[in-house]
């Protein structure tokens, strides 16, 4: 019986890279049936809402989705659809791996997985204006909401991820020296939980700014990193930069009842329709999805094929130094399957 997966092509370059990724996944013979649904700017045009009810119902039914990039206006318009989806399905764990793939860069031995709490912190949406002296918008306030429940489950996820994937160390990145209550709670729970994994997983904590510095000085010191929502958002892009940029950065949003896999880069409307967008981030997210569904052989074949494609510089897109297209790099991966 096939696995049904909700497929959200997204905005901008989303439909192009999604089509390329679907072709590669189908070339493995993976038993998947796609339920194509709208979200984002394209959904507003067709459904008058960025997240149609039909899309939400599809994800509830399939419990897994593969999503292209969605456009979020800066400062105006609707809130982030990605944030809305995480809240709707309580996708509490954001998993962002970064591994050296392109040779010749500054670092040759990066292999880091960042696990970010995905529903609380400064992204919890608790914010408002504060009126001063008759001006209702004289100031603004955002609340960093951290619960023991939320901290406990993300830290448990990080330690279990390390054990299940043969990882050696978990680093908790925090700012407990300044944010003594919210980040102090994060750190206290982490130190206590680490005792349960003693002998199996090494544990350390680092202040977030020092961790950022060490990441660019010696990324090999890190294995699994776990942190609060906003800190994780920032560090995850940093580690992507260590291995070549967001064009190679996949992400998974994991919850108890649903999981959404995505390319974490933007919708790049400036190159939409030109056929030059790099699909490898979404393809790697597709591999993570296949592994999540138990299709490890199919995922491993794709991973081996696209790694060889990049190393041999076959049909690479311009961002990777080639002259290929979205379609040609997918063709090159399929040939190697």
UniProtKB/TrEMBL annotation:
Residues 4-333 form the Isopropylmalate dehydrogenase-like domain. Keywords: Oxidoreductase. Its EC number is 1.1.1.41. One of its GO terms (biological process) is tricarboxylic acid cycle. Pfam families: Iso_dh. InterPro entries: IsoCit/isopropylmalate_DH_CS (IPR019818), IsoPropMal-DH-like_dom (IPR024084). GO terms for molecular function: isocitrate dehydrogenase (NAD+) activity; magnesium ion binding; NAD binding. It is an enzyme of class 1 (oxidoreductase). Signal peptide: none annotated. PANTHER family: DECARBOXYLATING DEHYDROGENASES-ISOCITRATE, ISOPROPYLMALATE, TARTRATE, ISOCITRATE DEHYDROGENASE [NAD] SUBUNIT ALPHA, MITOCHONDRIAL. Belongs to the isocitrate and isopropylmalate dehydrogenases family. This is Isocitrate dehydrogenase (NAD+). It comes from Longimicrobium terrae.
